[in-house]
Write a structure and sequence with these properties.
This protein is an alpha/beta fold. Helices cover about 40% and strands about 20% of the residues. It contains 21 helices and 23 strands. Strands 11, 14, 16, 17, 18, 20, 21 and 22 form an 8-stranded mixed β-sheet that branches.
């Protein structure tokens, strides 16, 4: 018996000790992972700022690197547009930066609108007298457009490169024939002849209105890109279109002969060119400053100003609830309310990069925006998308800035309910019998089509919400509902076209919107050095990403004895079907 008790106590003590060791090993592992790639970057006293677009992705907000991606060897860093533009602006006056070397192949961005803003920041950098040198081997439409911000563009002289400069295009997919074979009947209820979200499920080809608006959007985006290319390279628009339309750009020599690049270089010749520009005797002495490190180094020295301008990033689908990776109605309403209550925040910029989504969530966010406007100025800045629900939440702001290629408008709503009754009967050979307390109790069962009364009921709901959409845009833009209806009907416009019809106030970047916010807050000189820029929502930290990866939750220790420890370490940083939608129908990307 004595031996049994001893053995039992030994096992208990062993388990306890292992638990303690496991606890410290767990947090040691987390600490080690969280420090990967962190710390203060070492910036040389003098060097070339190297923007390798294959190593960085331009997004709306800077995000810490996912530690599991680092383990896999994926080293792409996500840099927020605001941080990127501010770093380029600082580099213009920073004696440590000799010039910028821009390698555009592999460009990754959340759309063409951020690329427009990044390109403008590079053009502004050149006003300091410092050079921007670009290099490409496989130019695409978007990456070459970015290259044209440079003083000089060089291209690899190697054969076999891929030219993807073919203009701007998209594909429209229609599934009606396939769904008919599967017995799926999609019931689409919408208001707005251009409201094409859902059209892919009920048609085999686009409606004339959908085809028209898509063609005009693509043309407008190309107009914006082509204008920048032609101005930079001093060629005519007709000549650029001719080269693109007739596939004249094939070999590196084609680019050189048509004045699209300034020289063809091998890798060694490129090194010699960069060395000469830095006035160094050999390439080994040339110091390269990775752009991500430069952004991070500047982020570690925030302004000590007490007064703030808040930037609220509304990026993603507008959804109900508290979803952290999207523009969730309840979560964002709380964020906006907290910013409104912060007396140190004197002005707000609402940065919208959303194609829309839930009407209920959109209305919750808009309500909070209108409340905040009573206390402080709210300026809207449009990124790649600010359409449908994205326009709903922001059209009442005191001023709206848009990028030229932003997709906005889409003032229209729809609801879509599939009917799988034929699928069950003809394809799956399953019998379905609905039993309910009333003749409409199975209306949303998805196992029978709507009758006329039900369809009229849904149409009335959609029409009522469309009228509400018209009314809030009418109030926000100071136009009559008739004027809004004329340019609404679900139609999507680019920022350039939206300016002409009064949906936005000015073409400008996020930086322009922030400077205007400073003016609206009583700073006529818009001296941003006297302001602290606070961004919301706060991105996940490395430790939160790691906990979520390992456990599926960022609050893995909740309900355990170590919950308080988890809270303490959470913000640790080594450096210190029946719903109605207001939604864009598609996503356009320029590669």
């Amino acid at each position: 018996m004595k031996d049994f008790v001893k053995m039992t106590l030994a096992v208990i003590c062993g388990l306890f000790i292992m638990g303690i060791l496991g606890f410290f090993m767990f947090f040691g592992f987390i600490g080690t992972m969280a420090t990967l790639g962190s710390g203060t970057p070492a910036i040389p006293r003098s060097g070339v700022l190297f923007m390798d677009m294959s190593k960085i992705a331009i997004s709306e907000q800077t995000k810490e690197t996912d530690p599991m991606s680092m383990i896999k060897g994926e080293d792409t860093r996500i840099i927020g547009l605001w941080d990127a533009v501010q770093a380029i602006g600082k580099a213009a006056s920073d004696p440590a930066v000799q010039y910028i070397f821009l390698k555009t192949d592999g460009l990754s961005a959340s759309g063409i609108a951020p690329v427009e803003e990044l390109r403008q920041a590079l053009l502004d950098f050149r006003k300091s007298g410092k050079a921007v040198v670009a290099y490409t081997e496989n130019p695409g439409t978007g990456s070459y457009y970015l290259s044209t911000a440079a003083d000089k563009i060089y291209m690899g002289s190697y054969k076999g490169g891929s030219n993807m400069m073919t203009g701007v295009g998209t594909q429209m997919v229609f599934l009606k024939d396939l769904l008919d074979k599967l017995g799926v009947n999609v019931q689409l209820i919408r208001h707005g002849k251009y409201k094409s979200a859902g059209e892919m499920y009920i048609k085999s080809q686009p409606s004339p209105e959908n085809l028209l608006q898509t063609q005009e959007m693509v043309n407008s985006i190309w107009d914006n890109l082509a204008a920048g290319i032609c101005e930079s390279r001093e060629i005519s628009r007709s000549r650029l279109d001719e080269m693109i339309d007739h596939l004249e750009l094939n070999t590196p020599e084609d680019f050189l002969n048509n004045n699209l690049v300034d020289g063809l270089l091998t890798k060694e010749e490129l090194k010699d060119k960069l060395t000469d520009l830095a006035v160094e005797s050999r390439y080994a002495d040339l110091k390269m400053i990775p752009f991500y490190d430069y952004v991070a180094a500047n982020a570690l020295n925030p302004s000590s100003a007490k007064q703030k301008i808040a930037i609220i990033f509304a990026e993603g689908e507008i959804v109900d609830g508290y979803e952290k990776d999207e523009v969730a109605g309840d979560r964002f309403a709380n964020i906006i309310a907290s910013v409104r209550a912060d007396s140190t925040v004197k002005a707000v910029v609402l940065r919208v990069a959303s194609p829309g989504g839930s009407v209920v969530a959109s209305e919750k966010i808009r309500t909070e925006i209108d409340l905040m406007r009573k206390d402080k100025p709210v300026i809207a800045s449009y990124g790649n998308y600010a359409a449908s629900g994205g326009y709903w939440i922001s059209n009442s702001c005191d001023k709206i800035f848009s990028d030229p290629s932003t997709l906005t408008g889409s003032i229209g709503v729809f609801s879509m309910i599939p009917d799988f009754s034929k699928t069950a009967e003809k394809v799956l050979h399953v019998g379905i019998t609905n039993v309910g307390s009333s003749c409409h109790s199975d209306m949303y069962s998805l196992m029978r089509p709507f009758d006329n009364e039900e369809y009229a009921y849904m149409q009335k709901s959609v029409d009522d919400i469309y009228e509400a959409f018209l009314s809030n845009v009418s109030a926000g833009r100071g136009m009559s509902t008739e004027e809004i209806d004329e340019i609404a009907q679900g139609r999507v416009w680019t920022g350039s076209d939206a300016l002409k019809i009064g949906l936005v106030d000015e073409l400008g970047s996020l930086s322009d919107a922030v400077r205007y916010a400073a003016i609206a807050a009583g700073d006529p000189m818009a001296d941003l050095s006297s302001w602290q820029i606070a961004t919301y929502p706060k991105p996940q930290t490395t430790i939160e990403m790691l906990l979520e990866t390992l456990t599926g939750s960022t609050d893995a220790l909740a309900g355990t004895p170590f919950e308080s420890v988890g809270r303490a370490f959470r913000n640790w940083d080594a450096a210190s079907s029946e719903k109605v939608y207001a939604r864009m129908p598609y996503i356009l990307e320029v590669k």
